[in-house]
Amino acid sequence: MNYHILREFADSWVLLAMFVFFVAVIVWVFRPGSRKDYQDVSTSIFRNEDTPAEKEART
């Protein structure tokens, strides 16, 4: 295989595959019902805000 064959392959099929992957990621992120999941994940850091986390039991 020489450079020109690989270049043509990258310009056509790989570009198409990357575009399909990009569209799939966008569809996955903005799928219906995902807002609740993202809201839960974004507020998970504040769950122990009122009281400190429990210490691990020392043995």
Mean pLDDT metric: 82
Tell me roughly what share of residues is in helical segments.
Answer: 55-70%
**Based on CA inertia axes, which overall geometry fits?**
elongated
Q: How far apart, in Å, are the first and last alpha carbons? A: 64 Å
Question: What's the helix count?
Answer: 2
The ordered string of helix (H) and strand (E) elements is: HH
Approximately how much beta-strand content do the residues carry? under 5%
**Mind describing the biggest β-sheet?**
none
Secondary-structure content class:
mainly alpha
| Unreliably modeled segments | none
Radius of gyration: 23 Å
> What does the oligomeric state look like here?
single chain
Q: What's the total count of β strands?
A: 0
Protein name: Cbb3-type cytochrome c oxidase subunit IV
Keywords: Membrane, Transmembrane, Transmembrane helix
InterPro entries: Cbb3-typ_cyt_oxidase_comp
